[in-house]
Specification:
disordered N terminus, binds zinc ion, Glucose Oxidase, domain 1, elongated, Aminopeptidase, alpha/beta, eight-stranded mixed beta sheet, 3 domains
Length: 454
């Protein structure tokens, strides 16, 4: 699959053109409704059922990695599955029941079948006194424990007495499951999209990421691609660590990447730069996102957050940024039952999808050219590129033609021309296409930052 990368074709049109983002947001919403009830964790049948629903929409290769497999400093954990979990009072009334909400059980709770006093039960109950109607999200992946999560209002209403506790779960050797959708392009250079699939009934985190990544892959399947695309749907942290451990020899193909999640709330778009800080995707985000959302924020890398923690760890340092709206921990509903459909806005979902599409499209269309007529301006009018009326103020497209000709010296890619001219990236890419077609430009090497393996 190695290519020289000297001269590459790139699609003439933006990936975003012709997309009805509102209709796609409705599609994402419907997919999220299907995924919402599933009891997901970092391993187990919830992840498999989730991947099956993704695989019904896009081609997905599912990998099972056995428990106990060493992955860098970690180990693939035992597989966890649960059939039922509840607490009943001494009259047999169910106080909490996993069947009512997947957040009621702390993820990775060990099996329990016992009767306890309220005093004995109390350390195993988790609530949010500041939001008495919300159920918190708790996990105990790497310590043997059990617990239930419930609204503080319910917890406060419990009377002293004896409580029957039953957790019918299994923690046993099995596997960690992840899915990949690979879409080959004209070159083997890859754009990686990573999203986590380990959270139970929570909408913004992580169903928006799962749904939007699936729709992006579905869209990319329909178009000519210059870059190759790899979508990875895996549990957070241990999933990206496992994927990296198994693909260490392949990650040199990754030229761009995005970690997706938290894309449906009403906050502004937030792009978190890669650890490098100046990767092509960081520069692309800087030129395209403010045009989509005037209040878009670009923030610097920090070793905290989602799977960029692993993908950008110093031993990999991949050119991967993260797109969210309001970042993790910065909204009160985060990791609680209030992260449900009421938190999600269809317009925000549509805008997030547009942002993803435009980021991918700019990576797809970015190129460096050489002006073949660099001594004085070429006559654009006789080539049909400049409007014939003299004296009129040139429009955006004409400005773009002039900027592309001026900076196409084999060293400036279209992103750097957008940075300097402040013109829209897609207008510059359209101008470059037009100039290329009439023979005034030739592609130089691969875009700055992209180097193909030979
Ligand atoms: Zn989370």
């Amino acid at each position: 699959m190695g290519t020289t990368g000297a001269v590459e074709t790139h699609p003439g049109k933006s990936l975003a053109s012709g997309c009805d983002f509102r209709a796609l947001a409705d599609e994402a919403w419907a997919m999220m409704e299907e995924l919402f009830p599933i009891c997901r964790s970092i391993t187990g049948d919830g992840v498999r059922r989730t991947l099956a629903l993704i695989g019904a929409r896009i081609p997905l290769q599912v990998t099972e990695v056995p428990s106990g497999t060493q992955v860098f400093d970690w180990e693939v954990p035992l597989e966890w599955n649960v059939r039922e979990a509840w607490i009943a009072d001494d009259e047999g009334r169910r106080i909490v029941d996993l069947h009512d909400h997947t957040l009621h059980l702390m993820s990775y709770s060990v099996p329990v079948d016992t009767t306890l006093t309220l005093e004995e039960l109390r350390p195993h109950l988790h609530s949010l006194p500041e939001h008495p109607d919300w159920i918190p999200y708790r996990t105990s992946y790497y310590r043997e424990d059990w617990g239930f999560c419930l609204p503080d209002r319910t917890l406060q209403s419990l009377r002293p007495g004896r409580y029957r506790v039953r957790i019918d779960s299994t923690l046993e050797p099995g596997s960690l499951t992840y899915g990949e959708c690979y879409l080959p392009g004209a070159v083997s250079d890859e754009f990686l999209i990573f999203t986590h699939v380990c959270h139970p009934s929570l909408c913004n985190d992580n169903l928006t990421g799962i749904a939007l990544a699936t729709l992006l892959a579905a869209r990319l399947r329909e178009v000519d691609r210059r870059l190759s695309y790899r979508f990875v749907f895996a549990p957070g942290t241990i999933g990206s660590i496992t994927w990296l451990a198994r693909n260490e020899g392949e990650v040199h193909r990754i030229r761009h990447g995005l970690v997706l999640g938290l894309l449906g709330d009403r906050g502004p778009l937030t792009y978190k730069r890669s650890r490098r800080g100046n990767a092509p995707i960081d520069r692309i985000a800087g030129v395209v996102l403010p045009a989509i959302d005037a209040s878009a924020r670009l923030i610097d890398f920090s070793p905290y957050g989602y799977d960029e923690r692993q993908l950008c760890s110093p031993g990999f340092d991949l050119p991967i940024g993260r797109l969210t709206r309001t970042p993790n921990n910065e909204y009160p509903q985060y990791h609680t039952s209030a992260d449900d459909f009421s938190l999600i806005d269809r317009g925000a979902l549509a805008q997030s999808l547009e942002a993803c599409m435009v980021l991918l499209s700019a990576a797809e269309r970015n190129a460096t050219y050489v002006n073949l007529n660099p001594k004085c301006e070429p006559r654009l009018g006789k080539r049909g590129l400049f409007r014939p009326v003299g004296g009129a103020h040139p429009g955006e497209f004409e400005h773009a033609l002039l900027w592309v000709l001026s900076l196409s010296d084999g060293h400036h890619d279209l992103v750097s021309i957008a940075e300097r001219s402040r013109l829209r990236f897609d207008v510059l890419a359209d101008a470059a296409n037009a100039l290329h077609e009439v023979g005034l430009l030739r592609p130089a090497a691969a875009p700055a930052g992209e180097r193909n393996p030979t």
